[in-house]
Design a protein that fits this description.
Order of helices and strands: EEEHEHEHEHHEHE
Helix content: 25-40%
Mean pLDDT: 95
Low-confidence stretches: none
Radius of gyration: 19 Å
Number of helices: 6
Strand content: 15-25%
């Protein structure tokens, strides 16, 4: 960190490892919580880490790219979002043309939270879709309707966040080419700026929650 040239532009990733519910397909480093107690404690640790980073970071460094991932960053209440944003901007400012993206779960979105994220400078929303088929959603433990997703995108664009990214997963249980085509067409109706397509990796021995997904329901290569 000390070797970074003064006045450089750097990227910063902040991980929020909490979800209100755990999706069975997910292998990310995260844990479920129904209260804010562990989240508040974690935010204090993040603030400490950012302050520590600041003691080593050379002068004049600016942030060109910010990304909040998880987990579910948008489960943070408005005051928590403002606290975290202040801590990161106390470290370094975001350049005028900087990119600040946040991973957002449509099932957890609120007007207050989106207002706080926009106030913090969010420029891009990364929305997890995975698949719109109800049978597949039930098989992976993530119920998320087309309507809920559409509502979130309208709320984002109504707040001036026009850069929308969406994630799809390929190789989910019960998934077929025909059904996947339908999901893609529904997703394209939102006119996202980009779609990221990932291959589902079934590793229940590593990600134990994936054991909830019967391996015989997975499509062949």
């Amino acid at each position: 960190i000390q070797a970074i040239p003064q006045g450089s532009r750097i990227s910063l990733y902040v991980h929020v490892p909490f979800c209100r519910r755990l999706c069975w397909f997910c292998a990310c480093r995260t844990q479920g919580t129904q209260t804010d107690k562990p989240v508040i404690a974690y935010l204090e640790t993040l603030k400490t880490e950012l302050q520590m980073l600041g003691t080593y970071l050379p002068r004049g460094v600016q942030l060109s790219r910010l990304h909040w991932g998880g987990g579910t960053p948008n489960l943070l209440a408005g005051d928590m979002i403002r606290t975290l944003a202040k801590a990161q901007y106390d470290l370094a400012p975001l350049v005028p043309d900087g990119d600040f993206s946040v991973e957002i779960d449509p099932n957890e979105c609120s007007a207050e939270g989106l207002d706080a994220l926009c106030e913090a400078g969010m420029t891009r929303a990364s929305i997890g879709v995975q698949d719109f088929d109800i049978e597949i959603q039930q098989a992976i433990g993530r119920l998320q309707s087309y309507e809920t997703t559409h509502c979130l995108i309208e709320m984002l664009r109504g707040r001036g966040v026009d850069d929308i990214s969406a994630d799809l997963l390929l190789g989910l249980p019960h998934q077929t080419p025909e059904q996947l085509t339908e999901t893609v067409q529904k997703l394209l109706s939102f006119s996202p700026n980009r779609i990221a397509a990932y291959l589902y990796a079934h590793m229940p021995s590593i990600a134990r929650r994936q054991a909830m997904i019967p391996s015989e329901t997975l499509p062949t290569p």
